[in-house]
Design brief:
This protein is mainly alpha-helical. The chain has eleven helices and five strands, in the order H-H-H-H-H-H-H-E-E-H-E-E-H-H-H-E. 50% of the residues lie in helices and 7% in strands. A three-stranded antiparallel beta sheet has the order 2-3-4. Strands 1-5 form a two-stranded antiparallel sheet. It comes from Paracoccus spongiarum. This is DNA-binding domain-containing protein.
Length: 256
């Protein structure tokens, strides 16, 4: 029998499509039956991993079709096998994989859609933090007020209109035209209902959120956004974030 580390490495290689792990067959007479059983096990593992990717990337699967996705997923699995039993942590390489996958070269926006789906998974499983109570904001001086953003909040710059693509491919969404070449910025977070909505935000919204996250006061953050877009509505952005529970105490716990 090979050493345990060698056997485990051979077993993992066999699951990825390699030869039967050395030492698995006790004698030549059993080799054919063991090879058959191992092939069944290998296929079951592959089917389970394809299903895990389908759950992680439902919009990608809908866009390319189930049959195409399942075959593509097997190629992805061979190139990017999971290295942890926690499959929730697996799949982050999908956007890069799609960018370099020749059959999808004419659909570069798919990588951005995959980035949204990866970010949604990360947001759903992010750490929690208690949202600020309305009383903490009422009557506060914006010039001195500092706000934190929930750990689940993600800001994702995209080269294409992937937020619109993602939204159009949600259950019950109505078909509508999309200018696919238009870049977007996605705001992704886990809200109070444990949903993970995806919204397109403006460059001024992003600037204001970046300033808040960096510890700048509310007034300074809003003024920076208004300097790039005089029509920017800081109050509307704050109201939406407050409704979603995305405003929390700053990292040092000091609001002002």
């Amino acid at each position: 029998m090979p050493a345990p580390a060698e056997f485990h490495a051979g077993f993992a290689a066999g699951l990825r499509g390699g030869e039967l792990p050395p030492g698995l067959a006790a004698c030549p007479a059993e080799a054919a039956e063991i090879a058959r059983r191992f092939a069944v096990y290998r296929n079951n593992v592959a089917v389970s991993l394809v299903a895990a990717l389908a759950r992680r990337f439902p919009v990608i699967r809908r866009l390319v079709g189930e049959a195409f996705f399942d075959q593509m997923a097997r190629i992805f699995i061979a190139q990017h096998p999971p290295h942890s039993p926690v499959l929730l942590e697996w799949g982050a390489a999908m956007p890069e994989f799609l960018s370099g996958f020749p059959p999808l070269a004419r659909h570069p926006y798919l990588a951005d859609v995959a980035r949204i789906e990866v970010a949604r998974g990360a947001a759903f499983h992010a750490a929690d933090a208690p949202p600020l109570a309305p009383a903490a904001l009422a009557g506060a001086d914006p010039a001195g007020l500092r706000l934190g953003l929930h750990p689940a909040l993600r800001i994702l710059p995209l080269d294409f209109a992937a937020v619109d693509v993602w939204a159009r491919n949600q259950p019950g969404a109505a078909p509508r035209p999309i200018d696919i070449a238009r870049p977007q910025i996605a705001l992704i977070l886990r809200d109070r209902r444990l949903d993970v909505p995806v919204r397109a935000i403006s460059a001024a919204d992003r600037l204001m959120l970046d300033r808040l996250r960096a510890g700048r006061t509310l007034l300074a953050s809003a003024e920076a956004a208004a300097a790039t877009d005089p029509a920017h509505d800081a109050a509307a952005l704050l109201l939406q974030l407050a409704r979603d529970g995305a405003l929390v105490a700053p990292a040092d716990g000091v609001l002002s």
